[in-house]
TrEMBL record:
SMART domains: HTH_ARSR
InterPro entries linked to this entry: ArsR-like_HTH, HTH_ArsR_DNA-bd_dom, HTH_MetalResp_TranReg, WH-like_DNA-bd_sf, WH_DNA-bd_sf
Domain HTH arsR-type: 1-90
Protein name as it appears in the record: Transcriptional regulator
This protein's record includes keyword tRNA processing: no
Highest taxon of the lineage: Bacteria
Keywords on record: DNA-binding, Transcription, Transcription regulation
Amino acid sequence: MPVNDDVFAALANPARREVLGILLEGPRAAGDIAEHFDMRRPSLSEHLRVLREAGLVREERQGRNRVYSLEAAPLREVSDWLSPYERYWRGKLGALRQLLDEEEF
């Protein structure tokens, strides 16, 4: 299954990757997430919107707060997409290891 380009675009930004890392620990209110960053609230809101539109986070209203949760399914799709490249590089590194073992410096 091809990965949605919005997921790659969302993951391209380090601040958004950090938000995902924070949410890996569990759901967080937007204010709690904001405490981890030195940016204005509208900027964080934009990052959260991009993550939500990419399907990487879920937003839930709890009273006056917006609580965000990690949605990991798109990350599984990225992992599946990367898998052939990982196998490729493991093969290359294995061949290099074998060559170096044969050379015995």
